[in-house]
Design brief:
607 residues; alpha/beta; Glutamine Phosphoribosylpyrophosphate, subunit 1, domain 1; Rossmann fold; six-stranded antiparallel β-sheet; 18 helices; binds 5-amino-5-deoxy-1-O-phosphono-D-mannitol
Length: 607
């Protein structure tokens, strides 16, 4: 998704803008640009491709006030003409989000004589602000008035070379925060872009607009009413967003999983029991009245939900449904006010998940829980209960450590729900907690399988399709494995519950179709083995992730990799790790852009 950085300081801010954009690269983008207030007007530099190219192109640019942007194309193809900032007369604008009424604005402004040079919705904001300045010369007020005409989601930053030293920023629906310091004031789409200059962050609310100068920050609502927003000291570690010795963020994040899980589970402490309070002070009362659970999420986060469904129904005995957020938000569903709505999201800003959550609440379902990796995010702020996964910043577009920490959080939810419903004995509780605590060690051992997985990856490089099979709580893990492979290696991959094979997908199986199977030693193993025989009989090449004690022999066309430990209910958390590694190494062999796969964005803040 698009990223914004803006600065007003008593020094040259071009390096800050460029460094900030680099920190936002993980969000996904196809072009980048910046505009500054130079001595003789707006100076703009734009480039298609990486921020490094923008950095080279702007090496001679210097200014104390400016805005910058990474663009993820929505309206108009990726090209320099469509890259932000967009300029109209004395002003320049960058924008994240979608302006739904841009066509009518474009017609109106064209009729007034404004000439559009791009295909973007953003350019209409630039001309609208310029047109408003004719009757309202103060930039803050002009942007306030212009914003009131915009329909859709946006975060914007605006500069005017007739009013140097000033940046106006506003948000309605898309994320934007301020970084405040004695030596200058800044704005960005997320905190990681501003850690280079300050830890003091101010999170703007929807409908806020702010004027930044080097010396001060003034925040109002879009109607001009002044507001105060608290300053949060960001706990984000600058090192957490550095690549260190790793080649890619995805690789770093896969290997950070033991630590991410340990941090996430720290909340349980040394105790042998688990308290509802880990989900918020109200959790005990609220959960006691819950008779069902509805999980809302997108992509990888939905796969953690699909896995948890098996746990919640089996261990806690609570009916559980999982819905893809983009479907649920537009579906006519039957609301249940006693149902707990669980919104799962790494970023906490995913537009569809947020809208689905709001839709669920609008139907009178107010018992809500956020499972999220970003404490200050919109989804967390809008839920009654919360559990913050402590995975640390996830930069790679392919979600890895966010997924396993979500699973850990959902298992804790299962235990709390089971306890509240009187379905968990003290002994079972202690055993599960012991297993959870051992997870970081168990994951570490699985990571040691990397060399064997690397060797397997070589055999996938010339494949165009792959099939992932799993059963029970490992079927969603097969779905996650297929998603990982397709998003970073561009190999078409599909996941099926293994029992479904002979109802259609078996027709695809031949020597060219690798079939990846998750085969833990559970009550479905014998059934799964029969399914694998069906593949073998059709000449399919099988890659099986088994447990140490799964009795599946290696043979011609059947490659087996055994996970060191058999992990019972929590086995999905271990079994997803080799699938992440497999995708990563296949992508390396294929030479794709692992951290920024084509067409994808890290944080999907538009519908
Ligand atoms: O931030 P979220 O967890 O809400 O994001 C949801 C999906 O966009 C995300 O999981 C996506 O599917 C990942 N690229 C998968 O690796």
């Amino acid at each position: 998704m698009c990223g914004i950085v803006a600065a007003a300081a008593g020094k040259n801010i071009v390096p800050v803008l460029v460094e900030g954009l680099k920190k936002l690269e993980y969000r996904g983008y196809d072009s980048a640009g910046l505009a500054v207030i130079a001595g003789n007007g707006i100076e703009r530099v734009r480039s298609v491709g990486r921020v490094a190219e923008l950095e080279a192109a702007s090496a001679d640019t210097q200014a104390a006030t400016g805005i910058a942007h990474t663009r993820w194309a929505t309206h108009g193809v990726p090209c320099e003409r469509n890259a932000h900032p967009h300029v109209s007369g004395s002003i320049a604008v960058v924008h994240n989000g979608i302006i739904e009424n841009y066509e009518s604005l474009r017609n109106e402004l064209t009729a007034q004589g404004y000439v559009f040079t791009s295909d973007t919705d953003t350019e209409s904001i630039a001309h609208l602000v310029q047109a408003t300045l004719k009757t309202e010369p103060d930039l803050l007020k002009a942007v306030q008035i212009a914003c009131q005409r915009l329909v859709g989601a946006f975060a914007i930053a605006v500069i005017d070379h007739n009013q140097p030293g000033k940046v106006i920023v506003a948000r309605e629906g898309s994320p934007l925060l301020l970084g405040v310091s004695d030596s200058g004031n800044y704005a960005a789409s997320d905190a990681s872009a501003l850690l280079q200059v300050t830890r003091n962050m101010v999170y703007l609310e929807n409908g806020d607009i702010a004027e930044l100068t080097a010396a001060k920050v003034r925040i109002t609502r879009l109607d001009g009413t002044p507001v105060q927003r608290p300053v949060h000291v960001s706990q984000l570690s600058a090192a957490a967003v550095e690549l260190g010795n790793y080649q890619h963020y995805m690789q770093k994040e896969i290997f950070e999983q033991p630590e991410a899980l340990a941090n996430t589970l720290e909340i349980v402490g040394g105790s042998k029991t688990i308290q509802p309070g880990i989900f918020g002070a109200e959790a005990g009362n609220l959960l006691a009245d819950v008779d069902a659970i509805l999980i809302l999420a997108c992509g990888t986060s939905s796969h953690s939900g699909f896995t948890a469904r098996y746990w919640l129904e089996r261990i806690a005995g609570v009916p559980c449904n999982v819905e893809i957020a983009s479907e649920y938000r537009y579906r006519t569903s039957v609301p249940n006010p006693r149902q707990l709505i669980v919104a799962i999201s790494q970023s906490g800003e995913t537009a569809d998940t947020l809208a689905a959550l709001r839709h669920a609440k609008s139907l009178g379902q107010t018992k809500t829980l956020a499972i999220c990796n970003v404490p200050e995010s919109a989804i967390v702020r809008e839920c009654a209960l919360r559990f913050i996964t402590r995975a640390g910043p996830e930069i790679g577009v392919a979600s890895t450590k966010a997924f396993t920490t979500q699973l850990a959080a959902l298992f804790l939810l299962t235990l709390v729900a089971a306890k509240v419903k009187g379905r968990l004995s003290e002994e079972q509780e202690a055993t599960y907690i012991h297993q959870l605590r051992h997870l970081p060690v168990a994951v570490n051992k699985v990571l040691e399988l990397e060399d064997e997985i690397k060797a397997w990856a070589q055999r996938f490089a010339d494949k165009h399709h792959a099939l992932f099979l799993g059963r029970g709580r490992h079927y969603p893990i097969a779905m996650e494995g297929a998603l990982k492979l397709k998003e970073i290696s561009y190999i078409h991959a599909e996941a099926y519950p293994a029992g479904e094979l002979k109802h259609g997908p078996l027709a695809l199986v031949d020597a060219d179709m690798p079939v990846i199977s998750i085969a833990p030693n559970d009550q479905l193993l014998d059934k799964l083995k029969s399914n694998l025989k069906e593949v073998q009989a059709r000449g399919g090449e099988l890659y099986v992730f088994a447990d140490a004690d799964s009795e599946i022999p290696e043979s011609d066309g059947v490659h087996i990799l055994r996970l060191p430990e058999h992990y019972g209910e929590l086995s999905p958390i271990l079994h997803v790790i080799p699938l992440q590694l497999l995708s990563y190494h296949v992508a390396l062999v294929k030479g794709t852009d692992v951290d920024k796969p084509r067409n994808l964005a890290k944080s999907v803040t538009v519908e």
